[in-house]
Amino acid sequence: MKISKDAARAARQLLRLSHKDGRLEGELIKEITSRIAEAKPRGYLGMLQEYWRLLRLEVEKLEALVESAVELGAQAGNDLVNDLRAKYGEELKADFKVNPELLGGMRVKVGSDVWDGSVRARLNELKNKL
Description:
Blueprint: H1 5-17, E1 19-20, E2 23-24, H2 26-39, H3 44-60, E3 63-68, H4 74-88, E4 93-98, E5 106-110, E6 113-116, H5 119-129
Parallel strand pairs: 3-4
Antiparallel strand pairs: 1-2, 3-5, 5-6
Helix pairs in contact: 1-3
């Protein structure tokens, strides 16, 4: 469903209103969505759809997925999390997974940002260049 520019603009404004002290506030989100659903302004379904999409993206920014070919040591994991928190904020939570398919190195995903320093990615890159 394609939404209008007005609905997208309103959804961005709603997202800004959903923050309190720089953090998403669950009660504000509930209140905003219930008021929109009750009032039913023009294009409200598109507005709510875009609002939920923006909220999902905002929440994904707070979660990091770190995949490595081997288990990371405690110090390396802590250093990585501290670096990511410096970039994305102190509320960031990290999930570490071992993925032997990477062959070596690691891949970090935070929201839509992906850093792939794995051997598998480098081999695929070389294969594509040849």
